[in-house]
């Protein structure tokens, strides 16, 4: 009898604890509910409408043409050579920008990690490009640096006898990449610099005592400790760079032809110049899904590296 009573009391205590923990959980989540509702309203509801539009054949230039076509728009965009070219350009811009920006960021971070006179001023000057608005950045590069008549780049190459080059017309992808790398290098530099200043000094001192030179210490000690910071920089940079629009619109307008158009710019052309809402929506859905998949895989890799004990 006593055993049954104890069992009943234990069950009641467990139910009471669960209810208390559930109430405590809702009390903690309560202040976050308005932000969650706002996020759903401004992001998920428009995305659901975009999915619905992607299943329609709807061109604003033909009133009354709206009709349900299922997955036909998705089949058409994957058969579109311009879409495949824009997707390739998106990959080139993202990988090229992230790679060179991270490489330069590591170099500048290593230089700024050492004490020298004027280091504060040098840090400020190197951070400045990241604070410049993308529109101003694009105009600076297209007008002041890459202009075929009076640009700084042609003046520099003219000093060694190279004839002027119309950069944005002859080399549009390279021109956009230079602008993107200039903008994103400070961001990568700050992340790597934070990692350099967070590494334990006793490990570096032990490497010096063991006779390891600067290069070996950097490759075998510093770089492994910077892995998490580098991975985070690559992930965040890729997410932002894949959505590049300002540089392409202002520097090349996607040209010549569509040679420098990436996916966001091509979607803009189809939606606001061709007024093809159905296919533009289908492209947007594909880009969002692909970005989510890549970001999820990258986040899992990063979190796995954080879970590994040093």
TrEMBL record:
CDD domains: TM_PBP2. Residues 87-298 form the ABC transmembrane type-1 domain. SUPFAM superfamilies: MetI-like (SSF161098). It is a multi-pass membrane protein. Pfam families: BPD_transp_1. GO terms for cellular component: plasma membrane. Keywords: Cell membrane, Membrane, Transmembrane, Transmembrane helix, Transport. It is found in: Cell membrane. It comes from the Bacteria. The chain crosses the membrane at residues 32-55, 91-112, 124-146, 173-196, 280-303. GO terms for biological process: transmembrane transport. Belongs to the binding-protein-dependent transport system permease family. This is Trehalose transport system permease protein SugA. It comes from Arthrobacter saudimassiliensis.
């Amino acid at each position: 009898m006593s055993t049954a009573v104890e069992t009943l009391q234990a069950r009641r205590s467990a139910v009471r604890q669960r209810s208390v923990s559930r109430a405590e959980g809702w009390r903690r989540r309560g202040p976050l509910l308005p932000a969650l509702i706002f996020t759903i309203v401004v992001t998920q509801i428009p995305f659901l409408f975009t999915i619905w539009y992607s299943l329609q054949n709807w061109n604003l230039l033909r009133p009354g043409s709206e009709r349900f076509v299922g997955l036909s728009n998705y089949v058409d965009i994957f058969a579109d050579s311009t879409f495949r070219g824009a997707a390739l350009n998106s990959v080139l811009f993202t990988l090229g920008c992230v790679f060179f920006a991270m490489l330069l960021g590591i170099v500048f971070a290593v230089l700024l990690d050492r004490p020298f006179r004027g280091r504060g001023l040098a840090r400020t000057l190197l951070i400045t490009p990241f604070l410049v608005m993308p529109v101003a950045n694009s105009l600076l590069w297209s007008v002041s640096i890459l202009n075929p008549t009076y640009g700084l780049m042609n003046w520099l190459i003219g000093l060694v006898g190279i004839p002027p080059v119309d950069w944005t017309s002859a080399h549009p992808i390279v021109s956009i990449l230079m602008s993107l790398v200039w903008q994103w290098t400070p961001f990568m530099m700050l992340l790597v610099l934070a990692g350099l200043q967070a590494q334990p000094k006793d490990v570096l001192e032990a490497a010096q005592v063991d006779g390891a030179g600067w290069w070996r210490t950097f490759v075998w000690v510093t770089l492994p400790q910077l892995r998490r910071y580098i991975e985070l920089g690559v992930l965040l940079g890729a997410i932002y760079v894949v959505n590049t629009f300002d540089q392409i619109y202002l520097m090349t307008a996607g040209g010549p032809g569509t040679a420098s158009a990436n996916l966001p710019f091509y979607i803009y052309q189809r939606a606001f110049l061709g007024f093809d809402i159905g296919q533009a929506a289908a492209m947007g859905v594909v880009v969002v899904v692909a970005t989510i998949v890549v970001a999820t895989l990258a986040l899992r890799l990063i979190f796995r590296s954080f879970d590994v004990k040093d």
